[in-house]
Design goal:
Blueprint (H helix, E strand, L loop, with lengths): L1 H15 L28 E5 L4 E4 L2 H9 L7 E7 L7 E3 L4 E4 L11 E4 L2 H11 L2 E3 L1 H8 L1
Antiparallel strand pairs: 1-2, 1-3, 3-4, 5-6, 5-7
């Protein structure tokens, strides 16, 4: 019985330290950067450290500012943004394409949306107009 209890405690300890993104509770969770409630499933973002601590954001620009300032020396397991075309679905921020368009109103007013890849961002630009960016370019643009 004692061995079973020990095994169970070790299992729970490892399970609690899982390095994975967390589900966002829209309308309840607050943005780590600006403290606004995360309500729009088209613009959310998330950072997850290599130790498994998840940070949620209401807008891509909040995540980028947080990443560049507070977490510039922190190893991240995940840098995620929501695909504008698939609300609530995360994509890798480094692989995503970005669009800034006056026709898309984002929570923090930067009019910034993310897409699965650069090709999808270019396609969205045809509909919404604006400027497209890669991960590297959007970080520099917002810096």
């Amino acid at each position: 019985m004692k061995q079973l209890l020990t095994f169970s405690l070790i299992f729970l300890l490892f399970a609690a330290c899982e390095v994975a993104p967390q589900k966002i509770a829209y309308g309840t969770d607050a943005c780590h950067f600006c403290d606004m409630t995360i309500v729009d499933s088209k613009f959310a973002a998330q950072l997850v450290t290599s130790k498994g601590k998840a940070y949620k954001y209401d807008a891509i620009e909040c995540m980028i500012h947080s990443y560049q300032d507070e977490f510039k020396d922190t190893e991240m397991a995940y840098k995620l943004v929501v695909d504008f075309e698939n609300p609530g679905t995360f994509v890798n921020a480094e692989d995503a394409g970005y669009l800034i368009s006056e026709k898309i109103k984002s929570p923090m007013g930067k009019n910034l949306s993310a897409y699965q890849n650069q090709e999808k961002a270019e396609k969205a630009k045809e509909n919404f107009t604006g400027n497209t960016y890669s991960w590297t370019a959007i970080k520099e643009h917002l810096h």
